[in-house]
Sequence to fold (339 residues):
Amino acid sequence: IAEADALTLLKDLYQSQQDWLVSLAALGNVGNAAQPFIDSYKQYLSGQPGTLISGLKPALDASDVIAAVLAQEALNLFLASPVDTLPEGTIITSYKMVSPFVAMAAGTTFTFTFDITAQFTSPQAMEDFSVDVSLPADFGTATPAHTLLTFPAGGVPSTQSVAITVNPSGVALNGSLAVVATAARSAGLHSTQQPLALVRGATPPAPAFFFYTGPALNSAGQLAISQAQIQSTGRDVIFRLKNGSATDSQTYQVTGQVVIPASESSTGWTPLTVQSLPPVSLTASSETPVPIHVAGPNPAPAAGFVGTVVATAVLTKVNGVAVGTPQTPVIVSVPFVVV
Fold:
């Protein structure tokens, strides 16, 4: 078969799979039961930055027949795995500390430590997770101490730490350090935390105590929300609070809000105004998920409608005593798109 004919065939196959996923989402995703499968399928089609999934579409766009065939074969292997044997749950990467805490410059080596927390069920007693680290070459290099972690199944959270050596040896002013943990047997089970923004000449960011944890974003960095969810039950957008103190209990105030662009109608969306959740108190070295519930109008807007979920968290008390100095809230924005 000629290369041009092979590309045409693979492009037709890609479009057929996209059309099938649209039908599945519309007709076979009652109660969001098929969403994890749909999300994983889309990742194999579109690619997942920061993981080993290159994607069929990027290969087709580059007219790379060999890469497209390999991408489709990877998708076929994913489809060949019985869905009832794959691990299901959550995997979270959280930035824990950095040493030394000085301005980033060439000639100084920095050690960033990330906690990888897995909570999942599986018919297997243990599951392997790959740890993929990326940093633009024009900023420097990033080398993880471990690229494979093994976690026990059973639905109980388990945490391991990974040290990443960063050498800002390049010349670029900015660089994003991305750390993604992915289940070896299920590409859909991967962490979704945003990359760490590094700036040459500035100290590294302080470890975050509040961050987004799921569901997974699409290749465009958006949270896909189905029309069925919007007009029926809505959906929870999950954030996470983490008390990094080893000795003190801490109390936080969290808020959530849906922001709709001025060019779109905001009618029916909630919460459009800032909604304060009940204060959350965490004992030393503990963490908890924090859901922000988002709902929309009925009937739902057309596919492609976009908005943003904005959540904030601020430390208010330490050991039950109000903090004396006003704290700066952590603001996390999650773009979404209606599908």
